[in-house]
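Q: what sequence does this backbone want?
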């Protein structure tokens, strides 16, 4: 757990800005929902921007990182899981607590409200905690879809993967199609971590841990069937202290052109030296 207490005072110290590229090691499917189904298109299309280009919503990336960190830190326990949706077949459960040293709630924020516990009963949260981490939509790097790749794609920027579900009694096949951004595509990522107290410096390592967990997991749909493997490269971490915003002071480059292993080593050095 963190060193935060109920008496920790919050005042902006600065911001850590993480930028870089997310590479698709396998096809990536981040679904657009049923409302965007087109005649002759895939059963499960990917989300696209107003120009018809695939992108990864910041909410998708942020939510996956949160889920992986909840599992890794042991926060996904019934006593601290609450429902944010109870729609049948689409239940959503997340971790929530009022503990002042709860790193997950500090990093991702919490609002005062009453929520139903998965284990039964309600939790009445009286504490509002500002989210430290902002994750922005990741646009496609258009040049990463090369002319050679386009020759084999089903659409200009995406492929269609055909799958079959087999009935275990009748052996009847139920074919379905999944639209994916092809392996080799790249997306530009940007995340901003607000440091509102000296204790927040430890949260940078937590973010990197989440990204490393994601590299050995899956993003989007179809992960257990081969989709959604990603990696992060060409990462740049920049520190902008409060004087950067108030007086135009220079920013500080913490790391540049590194992978997650290199970034993790740099983040571990931040601590008090960065916020001094």
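A:
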């Amino acid at each position: 757990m963190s060193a935060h207490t109920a008496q920790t005072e919050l005042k902006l110290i600065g911001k850590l800005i993480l930028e870089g590229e997310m590479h698709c090691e396998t096809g990536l499917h981040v679904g657009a929902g049923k409302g965007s189904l087109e005649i002759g298109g895939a059963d499960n299309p990917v989300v696209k921007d107003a120009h018809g280009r695939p992108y990864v919503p910041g909410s998708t990336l942020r939510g996956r990182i949160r889920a992986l960190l909840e599992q890794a830190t042991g926060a996904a326990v019934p006593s601290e899981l609450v429902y944010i949706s109870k729609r049948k077949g689409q239940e959503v459960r997340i971790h929530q607590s009022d503990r002042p040293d709860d790193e997950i709630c500090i990093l991702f924020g919490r609002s005062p409200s009453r929520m139903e516990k998965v284990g039964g009963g309600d939790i009445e949260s009286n504490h509002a905690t500002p989210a430290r981490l902002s994750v922005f939509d990741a646009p496609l790097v258009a040049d990463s879809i090369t002319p050679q790749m386009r020759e084999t794609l089903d659409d200009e920027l995406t492929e269609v993967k055909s799958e079959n579900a087999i009935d275990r009694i009748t052996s009847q096949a139920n074919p379905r199609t999944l639209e994916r951004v092809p392996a080799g595509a790249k997306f530009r990522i940007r995340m901003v971590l607000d440091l509102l107290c000296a204790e927040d410096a430890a949260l940078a390592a937590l973010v990197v841990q989440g990204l490393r967990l994601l590299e050995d997991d899956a993003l989007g749909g179809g992960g257990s069937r081969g989709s959604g493997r990603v990696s992060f490269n060409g990462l740049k971490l920049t520190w902008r202290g409060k004087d950067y915003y108030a007086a135009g002071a220079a920013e500080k480059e913490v790391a540049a052109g590194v992978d997650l292993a290199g970034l993790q080593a740099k983040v571990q050095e931040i601590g008090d030296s960065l916020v001094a």
